[in-house]
Amino acid sequence: MPPASAVPARGVLLVDTSRGDRVGEFRGVAGPYWSLRPVGGGREWEVEPRFVRPALLMEQLRARTARLNARSRGEVL
């Protein structure tokens, strides 16, 4: 498990490089894994911290825009 200082704050957007650069919101630590959740809601998934990197600004904007679009269609609260 990474040192406590390396664990991001809850809600930070991260990229899971083991799943095709999927962007997720950090939810917490589950044993040796980090739990991420899709920005627009949905099922959490777990990933090894070594496969995670901070989301670039463009990736953050894309994920947040997708969430807002889904919300405007009534798909997300």
Sketch the topology as an H/E string, one letter per element. Answer: EEEEEH
Task: Determine Rg (CA atoms, Å).
Answer: 13 Å
User: What form results from the Cα inertia axes?
Assistant: globular
Look at the helices and sheets and give the structural class: alpha+beta
Count of strand segments: 5
| Uncertain stretches | none
Give an account of the 3D structure.
- By secondary structure, this protein is of the alpha+beta class.
- The protein contains 1 helix and 5 strands, in the order E-E-E-E-E-H.
- It has one helix at residues 57-72; strands at residues 13-16, 22-30, 33-38, 45-47, 52-54.
- A 5-stranded antiparallel sheet has the order 4-3-2-1-5.
- A hairpin with a 2-residue loop joins strand 2 (22-30) and strand 3.
- The longest helix is centred in the last third of the chain and has 16 residues, at 57-72.
- The chain is globular and about 35 Å long.
- The model has no long low-confidence stretch (mean pLDDT 90).
